[in-house]
């Protein structure tokens, strides 16, 4: 029987039953083994070395393959998957604008190991054959969206087969597949089984249940905080004015001069991670440690809400910028927590 879920969306049916076969375990056993006993007389083996496959990763790959109508390969981390993209495609130039510092570091390491010069260009520059387009959407850390269709949805790389282009969408398996608090994960999706050693990284917009909740809560909180961007001496819903200078979130983006509106592109819901700009550096330093329900830690996408003065991880970021990742707590509790903390830091406490 075939699941009735739309292509590219994670259904409960596929999530629970997508990797099941006759006689299989209901839940895969967790094993730390790195190698497997050989079969006598050279017989076929399910697994040889955990670097290539083992029970848990193989079942994850089965589910992801069905969801994405392709063939999935899992990696130890997202950056490991990203590096494999670079190694395989050997781009002549890389188009990238802002985004996650880890991706920029990965690109820098790759370039250092190449004998030929690899120019870095902007995503708005004119593309040429052999360019690799590195699109991050929504953009880390601020959480605004970019117009994917403006880039023709697919980033063009060099021809691997005559007349055929390959698409790459770079995203976060670690964050929105399992949450960074207890899982690192890199995922590669390719079109055919024969391409399984080729690379094409997708963004996991196939949202599990927790992402639906955090997306809705994140949108509500971002829009609520944006109304508190008011002058000192005023107040919105208990939040003192003059503390929050700006809020970035995809849901707050208006239609731009090119006609792009994120609501058209993000049909499944907006991002749960976004940033606020506070009026003073000391506010940004104190806020993460003044909150009760937000964990002061880096990363995003877990069931718990996270908060960080972003320059603590990325020194190039504005010292006033604080990134929030909304989890599955009650949205009213998170609002109360933010309101209390913003009042507290505004008083110098």
UniProtKB/TrEMBL annotation:
An annotated Gene Ontology molecular function: carbon-sulfur lyase activity
SUPFAM superfamilies (UniProt xref): PLP-dependent transferases
Residue spans of biased composition, Polar residues class: 1-14
This protein's UniProt keywords: Pyridoxal phosphate
Keyword Cell membrane tagged: no
InterPro entries: Cys/Met-Metab_PyrdxlP-dep_enz (IPR000277), PyrdxlP-dep_Trfase (IPR015424), PyrdxlP-dep_Trfase_major (IPR015421), PyrdxlP-dep_Trfase_small (IPR015422)
Keyword Nucleotide-binding belongs to the record: no
Protein name: Cystathionine gamma-synthase
Organism: Rhizopogon vesiculosus
